[in-house]
Amino acid sequence: MVNPTTMPEQVREPPGSVSIKDVARIAGVSIATVSRFINDPERVKEQTRTRVQAAIAQTGYSPNTLAQSFRRGKTHLIMVVLPSVGDPFFTGVMSGIRSVAGGRGYSLLINETQFNTMTADEIGAMVVSRQADGIVLLASLSPFGNEVLSAHSHRTLPIVIGCETVSPELANFPGVHIDNSAAAQEATDYLLALGHRKIAFIYGQQQSLLTSDREQGYRASMHKAGISVRESWVVEGKLTMEGAIAATRILLGHADRPTAIFCANDEMALGCIYAVKSAGLRVPEDVSVVGFDDIRYARICDPALTTVYQPAEEIGEKVMNRLLDEIEGGRSGSAGAEIVAHKLVVRKSAAPPSV
Amino acid sequence: MVNPTTMPEQVREPPGSVSIKDVARIAGVSIATVSRFINDPERVKEQTRTRVQAAIAQTGYSPNTLAQSFRRGKTHLIMVVLPSVGDPFFTGVMSGIRSVAGGRGYSLLINETQFNTMTADEIGAMVVSRQADGIVLLASLSPFGNEVLSAHSHRTLPIVIGCETVSPELANFPGVHIDNSAAAQEATDYLLALGHRKIAFIYGQQQSLLTSDREQGYRASMHKAGISVRESWVVEGKLTMEGAIAATRILLGHADRPTAIFCANDEMALGCIYAVKSAGLRVPEDVSVVGFDDIRYARICDPALTTVYQPAEEIGEKVMNRLLDEIEGGRSGSAGAEIVAHKLVVRKSAAPPSV
DNA sequence: CTGAAAGCGCTTACAG
DNA sequence: CTGAAAGCGCTTACAG
Fold it and tell me: A82 and A56 share a domain?
């Protein structure tokens, strides 16, 4: 037997093992009162409050969030689904998302898809499983298997799509993004205006719709200029630096190599510039490079990258506000996509062709 | 009244509103049987199985994960706490974490601290609140307020610390990281061997322990070489590109400017190189720059960055394995830090001083 | 192989 | 201002 007088003053239970019952017992009140104390202390008499307070302190009690969420049917958690945690583009988007979530009393959970396109079913499962009150979808969706989601296009699933283009079935879902096609057209037009004709395009992933609007803008611009796009100039960069390096090498290997390369995102543009330089060519004198996104490395790379700016933070804020409006306002959320303004940022990586 | 014959063939309930009871009723079995079907179909007779299966299909039932986790006292979720989602360094760590988590049946939840150092209390609250079965801590901790954690250094909280250095109270927690101090010494020694004497250091954040081991390694190396460190050469870069650009400008403004700058991470080294170049100086001819981490942009920046490689993926794998061992094996997890190997990667951003 | 029942930790009308 | 009690959706001994 342990001599009680040798026990430490405050015996704290290991957290998690102490429940509302223990607190109630020690404070000499009912569990209802403890619950009230936690959720709205004002509703508990001063004197009682003190006792409960003390019992909580003594036990080190902390409510079981799982039980709370389960009971309330609400987690106050938003799941943000994005392709990869290491992607600098999401710094801004997350910052916007976080600021409004925090302000409105929600916490964030981030889920990576690691560039695997998610089936909408997987996403639907997340909401249905109740682990979060809603989803911000920043990752690209598989073009297939969207039955669950589209079956609920009547807005049962609190989901808002940010940045990405999604398949037509999902066009009814609320979303916030720039006009990717128009932006890509502008960028291509700029290259055209510089005098380029031989403009290559490095797109994202074969199976993904993520950069298809950008590709379409590129094609539209070329078409308008009366230039037929050579299919060997449209290559896959897999949205990664590595992929773009490989793609660029292919492009530069062509007998009649392009004088300009338009990359569907900055990550690939960074790889592209590197590959051009390592081939012993100069940017922009020999090959112009244009990116897309305007990540923070765009302005410090050498030469500074000409690219399309996306208002990442604004997108994040708007996405989150729409999502929370929908969650809190019942199923009355606004549908369809909201277009935010992009901007072509002219820096040093594109110039007139030397030939 | 709606004429029943005009109803669609399959009336699916909106997901989430259908519970195990509905399925049981429709299948004509008890909820226990439905539960068994979900968790271990083999234990249900073929014939019954078919009926339950059909009822699930008809209702679109999906178990309420919150209820399951609550009931089981286990979420099969691991919370990964990291500073910022847009940080390329975490690509590798997350990839390692994800591969072992997936293999062992756990899902990941990521939580950003946005460079705010967390109090350990906040972290403790996460585990205590039962939202996850354990925590991987990749973010830096506030040096203060670690009472909750250190109170449980007897290993009640399933937590493993990755990459970061933490305050001494937490030294007992399991962790996986490189020997930051030794690595920084090596990098500084390298600069010294190149002939530099005037070596500046850009550290992370004033309040954070994150880069203090690296700083200490730098100081130890300088000391060993008999060079006294000028305090004006040790400046704060806040772990960001912007911060490092500002820091570099200060450094270059000194009458007697350093011939080499050692940055406590690559993100800052990228900013540093940019700032040196924009000041009209050359890297490495006028100023050598060395980074730390070896993020994927290190080899493509211009000049290619000399830096310390951290085995990010390996760290992620080890951290996760230790965490899951601890979670699954009770409180018997191994304590203390495991040191993994770093490597100085010599590229082009450092050279002998020109003077 | 299946069902009735207890219970996980909370919240919330409903009384008093 | 407080307590007794029902119930959220599940899982799991315990019988049969």
Answer: no
How far CA A266 is from CA of A80, A157, A292, A306, A313, in Å, comes to 22, 32, 5, 9, 17
Interatomic CA distance for residues B280 and B276, integer angstroms? 7
Query: Do A301 and A320 reside in the same domain of the chain?
Result: no
* In-domain check, residue B354: no
pLDDT surpasses 60 at B227: yes
In Å, what is the CA distance from A94 to each residue of A22, A218, A241, B94, B193? 40, 28, 22, 17, 43
Main-chain dihedrals φ then ψ at residue B204, nearest 5 degrees: -80, -100
Q: How many domains does chain B have?
A: 3
pLDDT for res B156: 59
Residue B334: inside a domain: yes
Q: CA A37 – C1' C10 distance (Å)?
A: 13
**A207 and A190 co-located in one domain:** yes
Q: What is the pLDDT of residues B70-85, one digit of tens each?
A: 999 888 889 898 888 9
The residues that bridge with A79 in the sheet, in sequence order, are: A109, A135
Residues 6+ apart with CB under 8 A from A253: none
**B55 lies in a domain?**
yes
Surface of A (156-175) touching B: CB under 8 A: 156-157
Examine the domain organization and report whether A92 and A173 are in the same domain: yes
Residues of B in contact with A129 (CB under 8 A): 62-66
Domain match, B234 and B253 both: yes
Q: What is the CATH number of the domain that holds A31?
A: 1.10.260.40
The answer to whether residues B278 and B193 belong to one domain is yes
Whole-number Cα distances in Å, A20 to A52, A55, B38, B126: 10, 10, 31, 18
Other C-beta atoms closer than 10 Å to the C-beta of B74 total 13
Task: Answer whether residue B354 shows pLDDT above 70.
Answer: yes
Listed residue (B116, B152, B78) closest to B323, CA to CA:
B78
**Nearest CA to the C1' of C9 belongs to which residue?**
A67
Record the pTM. Answer: 0.88
The answer to whether A116 contacts chain B (CB < 8 Å) is: no
Facing residue for B85 by CB, picked from A110, A270, A300? A110
Q: Which domain holds residue A290?
A: 180-310
CA angle B30, B33, B35 (to 5 degrees): 110
Chain centre distance of CA A50: 45
Strands (E), chain A: 77-82, 107-112, 134-137, 159-162, 175-178, 199-203, 234-236, 260-263, 288-290, 307-309, 337-340, 343-345
In B, minimum Cα distance to A122 occurs at B62
For residue B317, give Cα distances in angstroms to A196, B84, B102, B104. Answer: 48, 20, 11, 12
- First CA to last CA distance, chain A: 94
- Least CB-CB distance to B109: which of A87, A109, A148? A109
Q: Nearest residue of A to residue B71 by CA position?
A: A67
Same domain, B271 and B202: yes
Determine, yes or no, domain membership for A352.
no
